[in-house]
Specification:
Layout (H helix, E strand, L loop, with lengths): L3 E5 L3 H10 L4 E6 L9 H4 L3 E2 L1 H4 L5 H11 L1 H6 L8 E2 L3 E4 L5 H10 L9 E4 H7 L9 E5 L3 E3 L1 H13 L3 E5 L5 E2 L2 E2 L2 E2 L2 E4 L13 E11 L9 E3 L6 E6 L3 E5 L13 H14 L7 E12 L6 E5 L2 E5 L5 H22 L13 E3 L2
The protein binds flavin-adenine dinucleotide.
Length: 357
């Protein structure tokens, strides 16, 4: 008989875990929202895969991990029922002349990743990559390794794919976990993917608020992610299929999960307009806010405890890192279900996996 696993939380990491485990084990999925998990951070995210740009903010081991994880996305996507846009054609970082110092500061703070570095661009080189930017920007930087995917399509396709598997769905209920028991039911293993929903049990977990706008902008021709260095409104624009663009994201130390504020909307949309005036005629498709589940050090954590594995604290790097972190969760899950004990963490995840007995 197949062993029975509960996955609690059907956001980003819950989906990735379910996709890997559904054929091998008997799965029950618990999600507080509906099948779209539209309140999850993963549903709100811009889904940029930016190991080099993020290295300015995070430790080099996470950035290196991000590089590894990007390669996993096409493998994940090819098994899904439904198209999911994925792109790895690099990203541009630009600044208006008065903000060149911020661009230089950003360049200085980029961590050296294996065979990956930023390339300075002049106006002509910017024009070759993104013609629409060359009239406004004379200086920029190209980060060739960076990518992105369409998280809305990923959410849809992952759900469609999992619908065809033999899974027990428990949607619309916020459940509690007690060891290997979920909502009063005992499992061989529980995988806790609740993100911020685990706040009361995971010490130091907090939400970091972020807001994004999704617009339909047929006049804008950007083909890859663009970041604007700005002292007050550092934003990025991420082109999705069908002339849709995600403009994001604020980062606010707040647990408030209320609707997007006027201030943030003004900041995001005005900054986007200074990158490409075509945004003036764009239609706003959605304005969303979400809370990034984050530990105090902003590093992710996998915790192994008897028949319970928890993955959390993906902060602003969920899409960037989840594929390799979930690979580790799945490796541990398989092992514990065979031999009833966990094994040492993979070498490249040292420090991110801890065992609590
Ligand atoms: C505005 C914004 C922009 C972002 N941009 C990027 C980006 O460009 N690149 C990147 O790599 N990352 C980005 N992120 C971060 C990324 O989205 C998160 O790190 C990631 O989604 C965290 O995944 P998770 O599965 O841990 O949590 P979530 O995706 O939040 O999923 C948790 C799920 O658990 C469910 N749940 C909670 N409690 C319970 C319970 N008790 N019972 C049942 N279900 C429960 C929730 O409803 C939710 O669906 C962004 C996040 C935000 C908010």
């Amino acid at each position: 008989m197949k062993k029975h696993i509960a996955i609690v939380g059907f956001g980003l990491s819950g989906r990735l875990a379910a996709l890997q485990l559904a054929d091998e084990f008997s799965l029950s999925i618990f999600e507080a929202g509906d099948c779209h998990a539209s309140k999850s951070a993963g549903a709100v995210a811009a889904a940029m895969l930016a190991p080099l740009a993020e290295s300015v903010l995070c430790e080099p081991d996470l950035a290196e991990l991000g590089l590894l994880a990007i390669a996993r996305w096409p493998q994940i996507i090819k098994h899904l029922h439904g198209e999911v846009f994925f792109q790895q054609q690099g990203a541009l970082i630009v600044a208006h002349p008065q903000d060149f110092a911020d661009l230089q500061l950003f360049a200085n703070r980029l961590k050296p990743l294996e065979q990956q570095q930023g390339q300075w661009l002049n106006r002509e080189q910017i024009a070759q990559l993104e013609p629409a930017l060359s009239t406004r920007f004379q200086k920029g930087m190209f980060l060739p390794c960076e990518g992105q995917l369409d998280n809305v399509a990923f959410y849809q396709a992952s759900y469609q794919t999992l619908l065809e598997k033999d899974i027990a769905w428990h949607l619309g209920n916020k459940v509690t976990i007690n060891g290997n028991e979920v909502a009063g039911q005992i499992f061989d293993l529980v995988i806790d993917c609740r993100g911020l929903g685990a706040k009361t049990e995971l010490s130091g977990l907090r939400g970091v608020r972020g807001e994004v706008a999704r617009v339909f902008a047929p006049q804008v021709t950007l083909s890859r992610p663009v970041r604007l260095m700005h002292p007050r409104y550092p934003i990025y624009i991420v082109p999705k299929p069908n002339h849709e663009f995600v403009i994001g994201a604020t980062e606010i130390e707040s647990q408030d999960d209320g609707a997007v504020t006027v201030r943030s909307t003004l900041e995001l949309l005005s900054a986007a307009y200074t990158i490409d005036s075509g945004f003036a005629e764009a239609q706003i498709l959605s304005l969303k806010s979400g809370l990034r589940p984050s530990f105090v050090d902003n590093r992710p954590q996998i915790t192994l405890s008897k028949q319970l594995i928890s993955i959390n604290g993906l902060y602003r790097h969920g899409y960037l890192l989840a594929p390799v972190l979930v690979d580790e969760v799945v490796r541990q899950a398989r092992h514990v279900l065979l031999e009833l004990d966990f094994m040492p963490a993979s070498e490249h995840l040292a420090g991110l996996v801890q065992r609590v007995d």
